[in-house]
Each structure stands twice: as structure tokens, then as C-alpha cells.
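Input sequence (399 aa), recorded before submission:
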Amino acid sequence: MTNFGRTAIALTAAAVISLLIIDAAAAKSKKHHSQPAAAAENAQPATDDKQGQANDVNGQAQKPASSEKAAGANASATPPNTWSDAEIADAKTHCAEVLQRIHAVYAAREPIREGACGAPAPIELISIGQNPEVTFSPPPVVRCDLAETLVNWLENDLQPLAKKHFGAPIIKIETMSGYSCRNAFGRKTTKLSEHGLANALDIGAFVTASAKSVSVLDDWGTTQRELAEIAEKKAAAEKQAAELAAAQKAEQTNLASEQGAGAASAPAAATASGLGAPAAGLARSTIVDGVPKVTVTLPGASKSATKTAVRADEPPARLGGPAPGSAKAGAGKSRRKDVAALSQTTGRGTLSDDQAFLREAHVAACRRFGTTLGPEANRDHVNHFHVDMAQRKFAKICD
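Predicted structure, C-alpha cell format:
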């Protein structure tokens, strides 16, 4: 082989090797560029997952924070469900001091807390006073300050009044309501009743040692409100009676006018007949203004044929109206009598011992309690006394 041939072969081989090397390098470079792209593609979901997990973690962290904030706001607006140890201790200490200076039999109760209602040291009041001991039926749950005021009212006011009017002391007080978590009467969404603070008592009746029961409902008597209603009915009845009398008078006047007109036309006919015909046996009647019961007899008429003229001021029976004493004629009068009788039986006048005791007991309560309500206040209190220890800025309530 010549040198030229050898050189050609060597160049060819070198070219082939170069091509192989270039292909290998290109393949390697392609592979190198495709792997990062795949890695990036594969890594993206992982990043999203991680971000989502981070968001979930952050959301979970934020949610409790919001709930805690809302719970804190509600807690500040809503009273706690329990009294603090300090509040209970202070209330019990105060209560012990109060109970030491009054005559009372009681049973201590556990602290009560129902939202805004309750008392830190309530007691069940079994009886108060001494010689005699006055029991409560049923025993109410109240605060000690209310118990003390009840004792003072009983010993200084009620017992002297009972002996004055009944000759016997009170031995029992019938209650209707002590502690009760509710709003005041007539208020659905506002002011809490003093009953909700164990600071009020409703009393329905008092019983004496002689077994006499004095009930607010049965023995208070007629209220001013009812007397006003009676007066209104009486005025309405009198107005109706006056209208009826006026109508009757107008009817009488009309009838008299009609009869007067008819009687006045008769003499004119008689005069005409007298001019051209005999008047024997002919009698005519008429009314002469200003002269009652005028009798007119035409010439030639007999006395038996005469007729007395009708007066315009005769009673209704003579004029065609209702006869005196009839049901229709006496309607207005009977109504007035019924109203008058009702007024006499329900009016104040002289109070009975029961009525006087209840009214004087009510007046005495007004001096001692923050609020005293009875039958005169409204219809809700027609059957009991309500007394409570509400603090008033200006004046006590007494109705």
C-alpha cells in the first residue's frame, strides 16, 4: 500500500471517530438539558403541595385566634356562670352580720348564678319575728338585706296594725314569689326584675292567730282605677238617659202641634155650617192658646156633646207616648239607679278593718322598701303586694 492510501485511511478513521465523539457529546448535552426541565416540572407540584400545606397550617393557626377573640368578646358581654370566691366570701360575711341582729329562722343556700340572675349568698327564709314567730308559706329564697327589712316591717308596722284591726297578731305570711330569674312585669327584653336578684318578695295574704285570713285580692276593695270605670259608665248612662228624655220631649211637642192643628180647623167648619144649616146637636172642640182645658160649645149643642180640649203639656200617655211606669219610660231612670247602687257598694266610704289594714300596711311598706306595688299600681298586682330592695336615685316607688 502506498503512503497515499495509508494517509487516506487514517483521515477517514479520524473523521469517523470525530463524528462519533460529536454525536456522543450532543446526546450527552441533550440529556443534560432535559433532566433539569423534568426536575423542574416534577418539583412544581411539590412546591404547590408545600405551599398548600403552609396555607393550611396558617389557616389553622388563624382560626383559633379568631375564635379566641370572639370568645373573649362574648365573655366580656356575658356575665360569668359562677361567683368568684371573693364575692361569695364577702356576701357570706355580710349576711352573717345581718342575721345576727334580726329574729329569723333560715337555711343557707348555695350561690346561685344564671347569667345576670342570682345571688352569691342567698338564704331560704323560713320564719321571722319572735313571740309570735311568723312563718312563710312557702319559704322564699331571698338575700339577707331583704330579710332584715321584712323583719323590721313585720315587727314595727304589721303586728301593731294587726292587733289594732283584728285584735290578734299575724302568724303566717302567704308568699307568691321570691327568687325567679325573669324580667320585670310588662318588659320582655329589658330591665331584669329584682326577683332575678333574690331581692324581691310577692305577698298574697296574711293570717292571724285567730285564723283570720286577709287576702290582697279579696279584701283590698275597689281600686281608684275601678272607681274611674264606674264613674265613666255612670256618665255614659246619664248621657243616654238625657238623650232619651230629649227625644221623648220632642215627640210630645210634635204630637201636640199636630193635634192643635187638627182641633183649630174644626171651628172654621162649624162657623160655615152655622151660616147655612142648623147647629143643633153639633159640638166642636178646640184649644185656646194660653188657657188650659177650654171647652167650646156651639149654639144648640147639648152639654153631653161637649169635649174638653187636650193640653199640650199632658203626660205622654195622653199624647200617645209611653205610659208612665212602663219599661220604656223608666229605662233611663233604672240605668241611673243601677249605676248609683254599684257606686255605693263599691265606693270607699268607711273602710272595713280588712281594707284599712291592707292600706296601712302598704303605706308602711312604702317607707321601708325601694319599691312597693299593690292593686292600685296595675292589674298585674291586683292579687299581691310586691316589695323589693331596688336602689332608687331620686325617690322610692310606691303604687
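Checked by second reader. The chain has eight helices and twelve strands.
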